[in-house]
Amino acid sequence: MVLDTILEKIDSNQNRYIEELLGFLKIPSVSTYSHLAADVRRAAEWVCSHAKRVGLQARLIETKGHPVVHAWRCRQPDQPTLLIYGHYDVQPPEPKEEWHSPPFSPVIRDGYIYARGASDDKGQFFTYLKAIEAILAGAGELPINVKLLVEGEEEIGSPNLGPVLAANADLFKADAIAISDGSQFARGVPTITYGLRGLSYLQIDVRGPRIDLHSGAFGGLVKNPVQALCEILAQLRNPDGTVAIPGFYDQVLELQAWERNELAALPFAEQELTQYLGIADLSGEPDFAPLERKTARPTLDINGIWGGFAGEGAKTVIPAKAGAKVSMRLVPNQRPEQINQLFIDHVRRLAPEGVKVEVRELHGADPVLVRRDQPEVQAAVRAIATGFGTAPVFIREGGSIPIVNLLQETLQLQAILMMGWGNPDDGTHSPNERFRLQDFHHGIRSVAALLYELAKPGA
Amino acid sequence: MVLDTILEKIDSNQNRYIEELLGFLKIPSVSTYSHLAADVRRAAEWVCSHAKRVGLQARLIETKGHPVVHAWRCRQPDQPTLLIYGHYDVQPPEPKEEWHSPPFSPVIRDGYIYARGASDDKGQFFTYLKAIEAILAGAGELPINVKLLVEGEEEIGSPNLGPVLAANADLFKADAIAISDGSQFARGVPTITYGLRGLSYLQIDVRGPRIDLHSGAFGGLVKNPVQALCEILAQLRNPDGTVAIPGFYDQVLELQAWERNELAALPFAEQELTQYLGIADLSGEPDFAPLERKTARPTLDINGIWGGFAGEGAKTVIPAKAGAKVSMRLVPNQRPEQINQLFIDHVRRLAPEGVKVEVRELHGADPVLVRRDQPEVQAAVRAIATGFGTAPVFIREGGSIPIVNLLQETLQLQAILMMGWGNPDDGTHSPNERFRLQDFHHGIRSVAALLYELAKPGA
Questions:
Q1: Which CATH class is domain B2-196+368-455?
Q2: Shortest CA gap B292–chain A (Å)
Q3: Most buried among A179, A423, B174, B299, using CB within 10 Å?
Q4: What dotted CATH number matches A198-254+268-363?
Q5: Closest-CA residue in chain B for A318?
Q6: Each residue of B174-201: pLDDT tens digit?
Q7: How far, in Å, CA of A94 to CA of A256, rounded?
Q8: How far does the CA of residue B230 sit from the closest CA of chain A (Å)?
Q9: Which chain A residue lies closest to B237 (C-alpha atoms)?
Q10: What is the pLDDT of residue A267?
């Protein structure tokens, strides 16, 4: 079988792949540092020429910021097309003094590559180029069509990716997207992320008297805006931790029995977590397990509050105004627009007399749920089982990933394969970021297997 | 009658008194400005030598800061002793550009003296020296004993007055205290303040997880400290505006029918006030009139709140901690220690699981209520009627006056005569501070009358 040959090739080339990755990691492509702009471009060029070297066509698409690498090989008109997303930019390395070895002088220790970007996302993304290289070297042609989209601004919020996608929708048209920019559920537990929570983020502003007042002279005469705000905020959640906004749960796609069973089977070290957090117990909706609450249940949190005097000592003031930021994590099939409206209606109902209450919508993101019965997803399951030697688990993430929303929105794709090759303790965004050599190797194997799995009839 | 002669003398010397006050007002005795320390001392010396000139013995008591002027004339062993409190320091004049004439170049316009300190408290305090002078000039001796305590640090919180009082309690022993450092209820409505609200000031700190958390990764797992804080704060007051702390009203000395009738008879421009405050309606305890709520009812206000992200835009954080400052205005016979304990007990009961809640006591002051049936108070009523030609109204103030608490505590005196000669629109602490010439004159007359009234049997 062809794939076996390819996998053998991958196994025997491990050391060379690592050496090449070390070269990539030496480029300090910190996208947020303008004084490193030349290095960021050098990383883009490195990816572009490496893509050409492994047998793809490739070019840079210029943006207002850092360029996007566009590479492709589409020679199988009857086969599906996979869009591969990655990013070549990295987080700043600071605080540098906490690194055991310099962030841009990658070293190998105890089975890990240590360097800024090793896991996020240079090492993970590089697995795709190496798998493509192995297939082209071993079989002469790819089994499917591939397109690569490698941006240089992920770590600064991808400000220029939207326009690039909008202007080049045809170039990036595909049947599925593959993203490896996250982590496995735990070490040795390869993972497919099939859900992301969405977001509704709003601000409440409460205004009372025109000016701050002396609480001696006016206490008893005016409604205190902070008090009003607290009365509103206290009624956003019920005492049992559920969200109190009428209609909030109406659209929630309830967890299926099989899904709950799966989540229950995942290892979850509750005591380790509470110790890490410094709290006695976890809290939340009583009818759901922690992992369900963390990933598949909607939540509401006050992210910030302010008003009046917050300094040292005592100031006897009735503040003129107060405010709070409130966000809700949404799950399928909640939509930010609907939830925002329910929130605004609820706050208006709660607003006490004597103050003016204003609600502003600041930010929103749709939740993402990838249907697991899609053939592309099943192909990914088999590919990871081949690559890692063990079948992946399925999880949902509690957060949002803006680029996933952006890709899904622009390209209108249902099959999004989020397969993190990293580990939760890789230290992405932290000092001593690392990537496990074994995960790097298993990732390359999985990508190679994926391209063959997607080529099978029905996939 | 002797007093009539004295009052005639006062009437005929008006212009000289004003000229002398203008000299006093030229000294820029801003106690908070260290570069003006020499001027502050010059003001103390001015008071000291003026007190000697009018016939008192006088000296400076040095402190760690600005000196206290101690003056006295105690030649009537069978008569009561009146302690007169005043302060010779003033607020900073800033913003200077808003003054129509320089703050320390006093001028007379339209029946007012304009200068920093004209009303607060140089002009008001000066009435006592002029009345004493007139009596000594007209009758050769004072009808009672007087002691003067004139400090130079009132505007910076009287940090050194406590030690001076403690070390000289015998020197300042008296039967009554007179303070003219406030205002009449309204122009042409001379006023005796017979009550001050007290204060309990506390801080609530709520701690949740050890560190700020990502609301995507942890939303649904931990109790949010801001949410917990809001739940507590929302339950400190009932929906009708009353304080919800069990036992809070137990010790409250209820308003008597006559007191309510008196308050109801005072002019209170509710619409003018709501317009000034920029609110539609006044709020507060439904069973009490605004003036009752403002002065004779206890209240609770959140003075400040903080926690999490308060910047521009959206940050999806579950804050590790949150806090609030809460104060209560107390009325007779509430005591800060008792109320603090009720507050702490209530907050402890309300504290939800999953967070740590700590309450700290920051500041307290006892309420003050002067019994109006005391002969000294009745003497003051008659004296003001003589001095102003109209009987005073009685009011309670909503705020606290720390020096009154300090004087009462150290000297253990019940008869505290708070008689403001100023007006609410004098602009104390503001640009273009002023003092009405007519009030200055009526104040001097009232003080003269007061010394005679206090000398009467039964007063």
A1: alpha beta
A2: 9
A3: B299
A4: 3.30.70.360
A5: B303
A6: 999 999 999 999 999 999 999 999 999 9
A7: 44
A8: 5
A9: A227
A10: 87
